[in-house]
């Protein structure tokens, strides 16, 4: 604020660090104040603004749920001739996922594909997660099928995301199928994968299958954590065992 008030130039790296610090702040007034400062920097030092500054601001706006401002910032990127990158698209998709705006998630996904930009396991993982958060598992499955065709599906996070979605709709058979596919495709299973699988079992009241997943998990050398045990305890308490 002192720099801007005295007509001094701010450093874009300092601005990016400032913007990132806003993500973890619980003080909404401080966050709004910080966003306003970044806006002033963008207006006053247009020649210093780059993708990193915009992406940092977009991420904060997504966290606070200011989707109107996020849209405005995306438009400003176009005005400033700063092309969106894979990171930009991933950030925006996450924001729309938090806002439960499936139409905007799919619109961004189509734009990514149209530009042949950012279609990789990381950004696709953001899209799948957003679809699951929006309650559109069917869309997530359709996109995952596109990834299968493109050979981009062999990723642990992608499978774990879909299994979490299947847990929400209590589709144990679907989750087991994905687990079996992971084994066939040699996709590594991790703690999150098994915790999600056991969550499906508990939600469906199938503790026998949950025990089998726990056995597989231990055989792979993956140590259960607090979530693993709390999930199983919840399941056994529901069945009275």
TrEMBL record:
<dbReference type="Pfam" id="PF23276">
    <property type="entry name" value="TPR_24"/>
</dbReference>
<dbReference type="InterPro" id="IPR057027">
    <property type="entry name" value="TPR_mt"/>
</dbReference>
<feature type="repeat" description="PPR">
    <location>
        <begin position="155"/>
        <end position="189"/>
    </location>
</feature>
<feature type="repeat" description="PPR">
    <location>
        <begin position="120"/>
        <end position="154"/>
    </location>
</feature>
<feature type="repeat" description="PPR">
    <location>
        <begin position="85"/>
        <end position="119"/>
    </location>
</feature>
<feature type="repeat" description="PPR">
    <location>
        <begin position="190"/>
        <end position="224"/>
    </location>
</feature>
<dbReference type="InterPro" id="IPR002885">
    <property type="entry name" value="PPR_rpt"/>
</dbReference>
<dbReference type="Pfam" id="PF01535">
    <property type="entry name" value="PPR"/>
</dbReference>
<protein>
    <recommendedName>
        <fullName>Pentatricopeptide repeat-containing protein-mitochondrial domain-containing protein</fullName>
    </recommendedName>
</protein>
<feature type="domain" description="Pentatricopeptide repeat-containing protein-mitochondrial">
    <location>
        <begin position="40"/>
        <end position="147"/>
    </location>
</feature>
<feature type="repeat" description="PPR">
    <location>
        <begin position="50"/>
        <end position="84"/>
    </location>
</feature>
<dbReference type="Pfam" id="PF13041">
    <property type="entry name" value="PPR_2"/>
</dbReference>
<dbReference type="InterPro" id="IPR011990">
    <property type="entry name" value="TPR-like_helical_dom_sf"/>
</dbReference>
<keyword id="KW-0677">Repeat</keyword>
